[in-house]
Amino acid sequence: xxxxxxxxxxxxxxxxxxxxxxxxxxxxxxxxxxxxxxxxxxxxxxxxxxxxxxxxxxxxxxxxxxxxxxxxxxxxxxxxxxxxxxxxxxxxxxxxxxxxxxxxxxxxxxxxxxxxxxxxxxxxxxxxxxxxxxxxxxxxxxxxxxxxxxxxxxxxxxxxxxxxxxxxxxxxxxxxxxxxxxxxxxxxxxxxxxxxxxxxxxxxxxxxxxxxxxxxxxxxxxxxxxxxxxxxxxxxxxxxxxxxxxxxxxxxxxxxxxxxxxxxxxxxxxxxxxxxxxxxxxx
Length: 283
Ligand code: SAM
Prior knowledge:
Layout: H1 10-16, E1 29-30, H2 33-42, E2 50-54, H3 60-67, E3 72-77, H4 83-92, E4 97-101, E5 117-122, H5 125-136, E6 147-153, H6 154-161, H7 171-179, E7 180-188, E8 193-194, E9 201-208, H8 218-230, H9 236-239, H10 247-253, H11 267-282
Parallel strand pairs: 2-3, 2-5, 3-4, 5-6
Antiparallel strand pairs: 1-8, 6-9, 7-9
Helix pairs in contact: 2-3, 6-7, 8-11
This protein binds S-adenosylmethionine (SAM).
S-adenosylmethionine binds near residues 25 and 122.
């Protein structure tokens, strides 16, 4: 029996189902159920929410979410070997855990969930950033989720909460802080995982704002910011020259010096630039 439920400890689950970790699937499992319950608590009161979990693996965080009272968990897992272990959890929490075997980049979770919806996951490192960007850049806002509680490599977490002028400031900071309130709620050393990864990890909690902080079209902003930070050491007039024949006029019009570098431009400046470029495109 484990600390938070009547199911076997995670080490026993992993041994029973032969879940040797696969690097290609980003498998670093959390084994401490007290820790997974703590991560679940950092997602707030889940009793009135459906929770989307990507990559449940042997189910450590899934069990944390259920023990902490999530109304329902939808768990999307690509590794077929994990499904029997997850089915044992589903049996212990009747009607509260739905398991989908598949690729989180392809499955539409909304067919299985009822709002309000929160997302909680220890994300596979190879698709974590792509999923976050998708969740932050739908054309319409507010999104399907109220909050995201996500484990990333610590460097990625730092990029999400970074301030202008810092080394970590870039596309992720801008997209996250444009439409959400983002903060790091927990930092974990490699020893929290099996096998231990090379780097530390951190849990980021993002709460969706009811409206973006500044108006802008998501696709345009995303493109402008990706282009600007692709060559972050260059002056913006050079880094962005492919976006408009007269990029200097756009930069001047929104009060950004064409000689400025991307990492010094605040969110508001990028939103203004995206609006100005969008206007030209719609022209
Ligand atoms: N949640 C578990 C935990 O905390 O111990 C496992 C986390 S592990 C970092 C990432 C999990 O994501 C693995 O179980 C892996 O099989 C799964 N995974 C990898 N790629 C995936 C994908 N494209 N779609 C869904 N799950 C995926």
